[in-house]
Every structure is written in C-alpha cells, then in structure tokens.
C-alpha cells in the first residue's frame, strides 16, 4: 500500500509523548483559513517556489520542457511535476510537496530511531492534512511498527467517516484531536465544514476507551470568546478518556507557504 507523504520530522517532541517521528500525509477535508500546513490540503503533489531564495541562475528555465518556467514568470498550469527543476536548483528555492512511498518504506525510516522511542517513551505520530483519508496506508504502517512495540498516535481533525477510525482503532495508542469551534456554523465559516461529525467521532473515541489529547488552535476573534471557551469546557467534561488539553497559539508564519504554492493567502484571520 502506498501513501502520499509530504514531510517526515524525526526527533519531534510536540506531537505526543517522548521523542517521536512525525509523518505528514497529504489531503485534508477541511480548509481552515489559518492552516499552517497549506501544502497538506490538496491530496495531489504541489510545486513550491520560494522567490526570496531564487538567485536567477535560470537552471530551472533551461531544464523545463513544458515552459512552466520562463525568465519572466511561472506558468503553473503547464507544470507536470517532473521534478527536473528541483534537481538543478542549488539555492533550494524549489520543492515538490508529496512523495509516494509504501508502508514498508515509511516504516524503515521510522524504525531507525527505535532506541530513542524506547528510552523516552516516544514513538510514531501520523499527521497531515488528515491522515485518515489514507487510512489503509496508516493501518499497514502501524501494523509494521507495532511488531516492534512502537507507541502510535494519530493527529486528526476528526472530519472523516467513522469506518476510517475503525480501520486503525486497535493499533492506535493516542489520538491528538483538533477542536476548532463548538458552534456548527462558526466552524463551517472557519473551516468549510460544520463540526457535527467531528464531535460525534470525538464522543465515539471516548466511548471506545481510546486515549485522547484535544488540541485547540486559539484564533483571535474567532474561537477565543468566553462563550466558545465555556462551551468547549462543557464538551470536554464529557470526554472520559481525555488525557490532556493543549492550547495552540496563533501565528502567521505560514504566510510564505501560500505564496510559494500559488494559493490564496488566507492569513491572518479577522472574523
């Protein structure tokens, strides 16, 4: 089974307990206006161009066979994502997000740091995007690393059908669960979808006895009102298996990513 991976961070310490490897998969059902990983939203490969790194050597122009890159501009509609321009860009201004790999290939990378996981109580976290859009790949990956008793975690927005959770439920030790707003309409305004399925899946995970760490990105003017925070507290009081609640402060550091990917810049958020 192959997955579409856009990043792998070894020695991560903020995505679950201990020292971890965090693997990021492409594709997300939400379009949060404050998204810090815009490269994760599309399930397809994307070319990123950081203009401030470009030294105008024109190596990319010389190797491009589709006129996607000229001396004057990028014609993204012509790009076939062959990667030839990335290979010759010594300034590292170009990067392709998204790489297909098998679960076995991914597991080989993860298992390189087994000693660190065991000594720190760490393990593997699969994030995104929404990793459960690639539930079959995650299930196969988890099955491999579980043979070495590696702790596993999923970082999820919760906006997927329950059968996706069921596919990996027994192999997942911890769910890092995003909670963005308690009001369905406000949630839709900020993310493109309401939160009905998200809250339902959160309760289901709790009822199944799965450990849950809720993560709340605190967006000024959006979900930082007293009313929403009190409503959030009420919801979380009913989650029997809640291990921790983490507040994530907002920043707009990802702004350059939107420009580099040719995507509309939706940061900062002003509701």
Would you kindly provide a written description of the structure presented here, covering whatever features stand out?
The structure is a single chain. The protein has 271 residues and is of the alpha/beta class. Helices cover 31% and strands 22% of the residues. It has ten helices and ten strands. It has helices at residues 59-63, 84-88, 103-110, 114-120, 135-146, 162-168, 184-191, 196-207, 226-237, 255-261; strands at residues 2-12, 20-25, 46-49, 94-97, 99-102, 123-127, 151-156, 174-178, 212-218, 242-249. Strands 5-1-2-6-7-8-9-10 form an eight-stranded mixed sheet. A two-stranded antiparallel ribbon has the order 3-4. Helix 5 packs parallel to helix 6. The longest helix is centred in the middle third of the chain and has 12 residues, at 135-146. The mean pLDDT is 95.
SSE map:
Elements (H helix, E strand, L loop, with lengths): L1 E11 L7 E6 L20 E4 L9 H5 L20 H5 L5 E4 L1 E4 H8 L3 H7 L2 E5 L7 H12 L4 E6 L5 H7 L5 E5 L5 H8 L4 H12 L4 E7 L7 H12 L4 E8 L5 H7 L10
Parallel strand pairs: 2-6, 6-7, 7-8, 8-9, 9-10
Antiparallel strand pairs: 1-2, 1-5, 3-4
Number of E strands:
10
Helix content: 25-40%
Question: What structural class do you assign from the helix and strand content?
Answer: alpha/beta
**Rg, alpha carbons:** 20 Å
Strand content: 15-25%
User: What's the story with the biggest beta sheet?
Assistant: 8 strands, mixed
Q: Compute the separation of the termini in Å.
A: 41 Å
Mean pLDDT: 95
Structural shape: globular
